[in-house]
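Title: [Solved] DUF4267 domain-containing protein 3D structure

Original question kept below for reference.
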Amino acid sequence: MFITTVGYILAGILAAAIIFIGARFLIAPRTAAAGYGVLPDLDRPGVRAYLSVKGIRDITTGLFVIILMLSHATHLVGWVMLAATLIPIVDAAIVLRSGGAKSIAYGVHGGTAAVMLITTALLLAS
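Solution (posted by the thread starter after getting help):
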Protein backbone atom coordinates (compact mmCIF):
# COMPACT_ATOMS: atom_id res chain seq x y z
CA MET A 1 0.00 0.00 0.00
CA PHE A 2 2.78 2.43 0.95
CA ILE A 3 4.70 1.67 -2.27
CA THR A 4 1.59 2.30 -4.37
CA THR A 5 0.89 5.57 -2.55
CA VAL A 6 4.42 6.83 -3.15
CA GLY A 7 4.19 5.76 -6.80
CA TYR A 8 0.90 7.59 -7.20
CA ILE A 9 2.28 10.72 -5.55
CA LEU A 10 5.30 10.72 -7.87
CA ALA A 11 3.12 10.04 -10.91
CA GLY A 12 0.81 12.90 -9.93
CA ILE A 13 3.75 15.27 -9.48
CA LEU A 14 5.16 14.25 -12.86
CA ALA A 15 1.76 14.68 -14.53
CA ALA A 16 1.24 18.11 -12.97
CA ALA A 17 4.78 19.16 -13.90
CA ILE A 18 4.42 18.20 -17.56
CA ILE A 19 1.05 19.98 -17.75
CA PHE A 20 2.71 23.10 -16.30
CA ILE A 21 5.61 22.80 -18.75
CA GLY A 22 3.19 22.38 -21.65
CA ALA A 23 1.21 25.45 -20.59
CA ARG A 24 4.46 27.40 -20.35
CA PHE A 25 5.27 26.50 -23.98
CA LEU A 26 1.93 28.07 -24.94
CA ILE A 27 2.12 31.13 -22.68
CA ALA A 28 5.86 31.88 -22.47
CA PRO A 29 7.55 29.97 -25.30
CA ARG A 30 10.95 31.69 -24.98
CA THR A 31 11.20 30.84 -21.27
CA ALA A 32 9.97 27.29 -21.87
CA ALA A 33 12.45 26.73 -24.71
CA ALA A 34 15.30 27.99 -22.51
CA GLY A 35 14.23 25.55 -19.78
CA TYR A 36 14.14 22.76 -22.35
CA GLY A 37 17.73 23.53 -23.31
CA VAL A 38 17.44 24.71 -26.91
CA LEU A 39 16.81 28.34 -27.82
CA PRO A 40 15.05 28.60 -31.18
CA ASP A 41 14.75 31.84 -33.14
CA LEU A 42 11.15 32.79 -32.37
CA ASP A 43 11.16 35.32 -35.21
CA ARG A 44 11.45 32.57 -37.81
CA PRO A 45 8.17 31.52 -39.39
CA GLY A 46 6.70 28.36 -37.93
CA VAL A 47 8.87 28.17 -34.80
CA ARG A 48 6.07 29.31 -32.49
CA ALA A 49 3.80 26.73 -34.11
CA TYR A 50 6.20 23.92 -33.21
CA LEU A 51 6.51 25.20 -29.66
CA SER A 52 2.70 25.28 -29.43
CA VAL A 53 2.56 21.70 -30.68
CA LYS A 54 5.04 20.69 -27.98
CA GLY A 55 2.97 22.53 -25.40
CA ILE A 56 -0.33 20.87 -26.21
CA ARG A 57 1.29 17.43 -26.45
CA ASP A 58 2.89 17.88 -23.03
CA ILE A 59 -0.45 18.92 -21.54
CA THR A 60 -2.17 15.93 -23.13
CA THR A 61 0.51 13.53 -21.88
CA GLY A 62 -0.05 14.75 -18.32
CA LEU A 63 -3.79 14.37 -18.70
CA PHE A 64 -3.40 10.76 -19.88
CA VAL A 65 -1.54 9.93 -16.69
CA ILE A 66 -4.13 11.69 -14.53
CA ILE A 67 -6.99 9.85 -16.25
CA LEU A 68 -5.29 6.51 -15.64
CA MET A 69 -4.62 7.44 -12.03
CA LEU A 70 -8.25 8.39 -11.48
CA SER A 71 -9.29 4.99 -12.83
CA HIS A 72 -6.97 3.32 -10.27
CA ALA A 73 -5.20 1.42 -13.04
CA THR A 74 -1.96 1.18 -11.06
CA HIS A 75 -0.08 -1.21 -13.33
CA LEU A 76 -1.28 0.58 -16.46
CA VAL A 77 -0.01 3.89 -15.02
CA GLY A 78 3.31 2.15 -14.43
CA TRP A 79 3.55 0.80 -17.97
CA VAL A 80 2.55 4.15 -19.48
CA MET A 81 5.13 5.86 -17.27
CA LEU A 82 7.76 3.39 -18.48
CA ALA A 83 6.92 4.06 -22.12
CA ALA A 84 6.85 7.81 -21.51
CA THR A 85 10.36 7.64 -20.04
CA LEU A 86 11.53 7.59 -23.64
CA ILE A 87 10.46 11.25 -23.92
CA PRO A 88 13.01 12.79 -21.50
CA ILE A 89 15.72 10.41 -22.71
CA VAL A 90 15.23 11.56 -26.30
CA ASP A 91 14.85 15.17 -25.10
CA ALA A 92 18.31 14.89 -23.52
CA ALA A 93 19.74 13.57 -26.78
CA ILE A 94 18.09 16.40 -28.72
CA VAL A 95 19.54 19.01 -26.37
CA LEU A 96 23.02 17.49 -26.63
CA ARG A 97 22.81 17.12 -30.42
CA SER A 98 21.66 20.74 -30.73
CA GLY A 99 24.57 22.10 -28.71
CA GLY A 100 22.45 22.82 -25.63
CA ALA A 101 23.71 22.82 -22.07
CA LYS A 102 24.85 19.45 -20.77
CA SER A 103 23.56 20.46 -17.34
CA ILE A 104 20.03 20.71 -18.73
CA ALA A 105 20.36 17.54 -20.80
CA TYR A 106 21.58 15.46 -17.89
CA GLY A 107 20.12 17.38 -14.95
CA VAL A 108 16.64 18.21 -16.20
CA HIS A 109 15.93 15.54 -18.78
CA GLY A 110 18.11 12.80 -17.29
CA GLY A 111 16.81 13.54 -13.80
CA THR A 112 13.24 13.39 -15.05
CA ALA A 113 13.89 10.02 -16.70
CA ALA A 114 15.36 8.70 -13.46
CA VAL A 115 12.34 9.81 -11.41
CA MET A 116 10.04 8.28 -14.02
CA LEU A 117 11.88 4.96 -13.78
CA ILE A 118 11.62 5.01 -9.99
CA THR A 119 7.91 5.80 -10.29
CA THR A 120 7.51 2.94 -12.76
CA ALA A 121 9.23 0.51 -10.41
CA LEU A 122 7.01 1.54 -7.51
CA LEU A 123 3.81 1.24 -9.51
CA LEU A 124 4.69 -2.10 -11.10
CA ALA A 125 5.87 -3.55 -7.76
CA SER A 126 2.45 -3.13 -6.21
